[in-house]
Amino acid sequence: MTRIRSIVRGVGSYLPQRVLTNDELAKTVDTSDEWIQQRVGIKERHIAAEGEFTSDLAVAAARAALDNAGLTPDDIDLIIVATTTPDYTFPAAATLVQMKLGMRHGFAFDLQAVCSGFVYAVTTADSHIKNGLARRVLVIGAETFTRLLDWTDRTTCVLFGDGAGAMILEGVELAEDEPERGILASALRSDGQHWDKLYVDGGPSSTGTAGHVHMQGPEVFRHAVGKITDVVYATLEKSGYTVADLDWFVPHQANKRIIDGAGAKLGLPTEKVVTTVDIHANTSAASVPLALSVAVADGRIKPGDLVMLEAMGGGFTWGASLIRW
Ligand SMILES: CC(C)(COP(=O)(O)OP(=O)(O)OC[C@H]1O[C@@H](n2cnc3c(N)ncnc32)[C@H](O)[C@@H]1OP(=O)(O)O)[C@@H](O)C(=O)NCCC(=O)NCCS
């Protein structure tokens, strides 16, 4: 009996040119490089240029992933863009990406799970592949998240950045005696009772404006480590692997202390944890594929490695996905 599995064909990313350092931020809001680095582990973040939209970031990351995979847009059947900051209320940023890539076939949609968006999108792509709805899926996490910030609110504006990352998943048939590879298991969770612990106070149906980010930071922190580790264990249990089998842990990049806390609770050596929050800040749905791209490009993540992706964000939503690279 053959098994269809979603394997990773390529990854890519894009960061806007403009870098905003903590010291620069401290000139406009009452904060300091020392406070931000100590509490969150962020040194700098990238900011999209005026007129540069989420779909532009997404297209740049998509092109990099296509190059990495040796594919063209003709080879893609489905585009999923995980984003909280689409160019327009509608159409989906994914259809704009489809247009900008010159793709006239297949289908495209956006997925909204805030910072968990990329893990949700990878899992959704995997289901579409296994159900025969698509063979090659371009999964993108792209955000111009800084456009949701109130730049006078020091409790939120220091935490976020802009960027995009992409991954191409392809359905392959494994022969009976072939070892498992690609996406091995995933687990997704949400709990809407926490919606107002991290949310944006606007939207088309409520205020007719985009709104600004509000967060009960210590409350989010309190939930984060437990929820992250629970979903990682659930994913491992489904796959039959243990923490000791993992080669790489690629968590959502929101806060170095949350990443360290989750790594320590799982019993993972720090050298197996991919951390880019220092240079990217929290780029919401883009954070996991951006971190992945860095670790693939610098040669850490190699074919055959066992890689755990994890994210948690507004909603709350959280999830994990285990991949044999
Ligand atoms: C946001 C976060 C860094 C705040 O750190 P914290 O240690 O919990 O700090 P608190 O919110 O309790 O604030 C402590 C003090 O620092 C101050 N402070 C907050 N932001 C500050 C900043 N940017 N610069 C300087 N001081 C700041 C507060 O006003 C408070 O001052 P006070 O004691 O005089 O009232 C932390 O709660 C966090 O990381 N939470 C999770 C956030 C997250 O990951 N969100 C995304 C999930 S997808």
UniProtKB/TrEMBL annotation:
It is found in: Cytoplasm. Pfam families: ACP_syn_III, ACP_syn_III_C. It comes from the Bacteria. Its main location: cytoplasm. Residues 109-192 form the Beta-ketoacyl-[acyl-carrier-protein] synthase III N-terminal domain. The active site is at C115, H252, N282. Coiled coil: none annotated. It catalyses: malonyl-[ACP] + acetyl-CoA + H(+) = 3-oxobutanoyl-[ACP] + CO2 + CoA. InterPro entries: ACP_syn_III_C, ACP_syn_III_N, FabH, Thiolase-like. Its EC number is 2.3.1.180. Residues 253-257 are annotated as: ACP-binding. One of its GO terms (cellular component) is cytoplasm. Gene3D superfamilies: 3.40.47.10. Pathway: Lipid metabolism; fatty acid biosynthesis. GO terms for biological process: fatty acid biosynthetic process; secondary metabolite biosynthetic process. Residues 236-325 form the Beta-ketoacyl-[acyl-carrier-protein] synthase III C-terminal domain. Keywords: Acyltransferase, Cytoplasm, Fatty acid biosynthesis, Fatty acid metabolism, Lipid biosynthesis, Lipid metabolism, Multifunctional enzyme, Transferase. GO terms for molecular function: 3-oxoacyl-[acyl-carrier-protein] synthase activity; beta-ketoacyl-acyl-carrier-protein synthase III activity. The keyword Acyltransferase applies. The last Arg residue of the ACP-binding site is essential for the weak association between ACP/AcpP and FabH. Homodimer. Catalyzes the condensation reaction of fatty acid synthesis by the addition to an acyl acceptor of two carbons from malonyl-ACP. Catalyzes the first condensation reaction which initiates fatty acid synthesis and may therefore play a role in governing the total rate of fatty acid production. Possesses both acetoacetyl-ACP synthase and acetyl transacylase activities. Its substrate specificity determines the biosynthesis of branched-chain and/or straight-chain of fatty acids. Belongs to the thiolase-like superfamily. FabH family. This is Beta-ketoacyl-[acyl-carrier-protein] synthase III. It comes from Devosia crocina.
